Amino acid sequence: MNTRLLMVMHVNVAPPLNIGAVPYGSRRLAPLSGGTFEGPRLRGTILSGSSADWLLLRSDGVLELDLRCTLRTDDGALILMRSFGLRHGPPEVIAAIGRGETVDPSSYYFRTTPRFETAHPMYSFLNRMIAVASGDRRPEGPIYSIHEVL
Amino acid sequence: MSLPINTRPLMVLRLATSATQEIGSTPQGTLTIFPVVGGSFEGDRLRGKVLAAGGDWVNTRADGTFTLDLRVTLETDDGSLIHMTFSGLRDDANHYFRTVPRFETAAPKYAFLNRLLAVGIGEIRSDGPVHVIEEVL
What domains are defined for chain B? Predict the structure, then answer.
């Protein structure tokens, strides 16, 4: 599988809302308070207020991520990004992340599959792309290395 | 500083489809349903057949690309059932056909499928679609 780097995204997460035990698992909502993204073909900021990650901790210990966020490029284009992801790993690593520690991103599995929608002609290539991201959960929020699947 | 993406082969999926059902132009686009009536899958860690009663809901968008929404049931050669879905994107103008499969199973032997993300490269052949699916490591 060939990929190339699309952008690195630094996400800032606000304190989560704990929805609690739902029929599918344990549900939390993590609003995004902002962030930035930068790559060879696009760069800009993440808009707060229209961006959040709906987290579901399943009974098998896997965390499902369901992110929706609005990106604004440095030249004013708006881009909707949606991504489904999975995060899991050894209990001690997941516990350390829960305590707000920075851990080696290779010690756990944190991958997402972003999709994009935009009306801006300059960024319409994003509408026709499948992408895969590696995540690195930092205390202030995740850093995603997003790669285009070629 | 960016993290890499690595993949490894998971399976090659071959689908047998019957006559398409043309739903036609709807408020969401132009919908065509490809009923899946069978097929096979094979990889180092799993192999078996695709059961009938699945399909791919393909929407033609205004930009001429297709979005895919597939659901099928896989039956492994040792009798386990695996629910597989994918969303995907087909852009014939750019020879681009990629999918993002997901799996759901209760079989302990195949529980690793519940915990992985995957990416597929699709191809339409004369005898039906073939998807080369890799696990995202």
Answer: 7-106+121-136 (2.40.160.20)
